[in-house]
Amino acid sequence: MPSQSRTGHRRRTLRRNLHLILAALTALVTLAAGYLWLTFASPLGYNPPDNLPAIDDDSTYSVFVYGTLTEPWVRWLVMGRAGEGEPAQLSDFNKEQLDIKPLAGAVTRGEVIRVSAEELRALDRYERLGVRYERVELTLDNGDSAWVYRLMEPMLLELSEELDD
Hints:
Layout: H1 2-40, E1 60-65, H2 72-79, E2 86-96, E3 99-116, H3 117-127, E4 133-139, E5 145-151, H4 153-164
Parallel strand pairs: 1-5
Antiparallel strand pairs: 1-3, 2-3, 4-5
């Protein structure tokens, strides 16, 4: 009888430990999902300034991406679809960490994605347009123009200081 009691105690302990592990994993997955939503899709913490370029709801837009948005899974999280990126390059700009800067003779390689007005707004929210990034229209090497996100100067200075620390 004592061995049956020990076996029952071990089973209860094992079951309790499994429940704790499952609860911890569930909490971790929930936190990760919340973080991804907050980072990629949430309008919380972002109030777009009034002076942003107008977006026509009936138009589609070309956007040159050169960083995280070259990853289809990031575009899917941000816009709700990955979209097809076409290879493209932008001459006389050099990619430096989270930004591109004018530099004669340099070439930044990336992709062009075609987006709807709603998707452009989602990209603006992701890039924190007017707060962290500005959206400028530039001419790519193939002669087409596209929107490009560039760090705003005050943000660039803050990030440089953080990276130096």
